[in-house]
Amino acid sequence: MACLSFHPRKVLTTGEGGAVVTDDPDLADRIRTLRNHGQASPGKFTEAGGNHRLTEIQGALGLVQLTRLDAMIARRRHLAGRYREALGGLPLRWQRPAPGAEGNAQTFGLVLDEDAPMTRDALLGHLKEAGIGAGILSYALHRLDTVNPADDAAYPVTSSLIDRGFAVPLHATLTDADQDQVIGALVRALGAP
């Protein structure tokens, strides 16, 4: 089975939620039961489950986007290319697809160099003041109380990347002009490339 996320930052979004795909009919039946309060059929509860169904409105939103998926990915790739071209020379790095692979540009994540002129949080504040909705790139599992937190010293690379990583706006409806505002704010904050 494979799990898909339809979180707002994803290429195809329904606002939240996701999907599970499988070619195993028994597994598919169990997943259907678990998503619907543990009901194998109406009123027949066979195990503990939750309410994990997408609404019909969310499903319709996703289906419409699915018809435009290739165009949405192409636009995201175009925007990611513009970011790479415009931000080269600034004190930051971004993830590159593996050789022979082409990413879908789901997120454009950046990591500030250790010698950048400001911290990630200061940069996010600068972008917010400029009206730009950027955010932290991700969370480190070893820092989450719900997982069994560990000392940062045990994960120095992860800790460093998490503290310096951020994501800038990237979606299929982002205009070149709006992206230019993001680029301009980054250049003003970090210095001309």
By CATH, the topology of the largest domain is Aspartate Aminotransferase, domain 1
Oligomer: single chain
Strand proportion, as a percent range, falls in 5-15%
State the secondary-structure class.
alpha+beta
Give, in order, the helices and strands.
Answer: EEHEEHHEEHEHEH
Number of strands: 8
Rg result? 20 Å
Features:
single chain, alpha+beta, Aspartate Aminotransferase, domain 1, 2 domains, four-stranded antiparallel β-sheet, two-stranded antiparallel sheet
Describe the 3D structure.
The structure is a single chain. This protein is of the alpha+beta class. It folds into 2 domains: 66 residues, no CATH class; 122 residues, Aspartate Aminotransferase, domain 1. Helices cover 39% and strands 14% of the residues. It has 6 helices and 8 strands, in the order E-E-H-E-E-H-H-E-E-H-E-H-E-H. Helix 3 runs parallel beside helix 6. The mean pLDDT is 93.
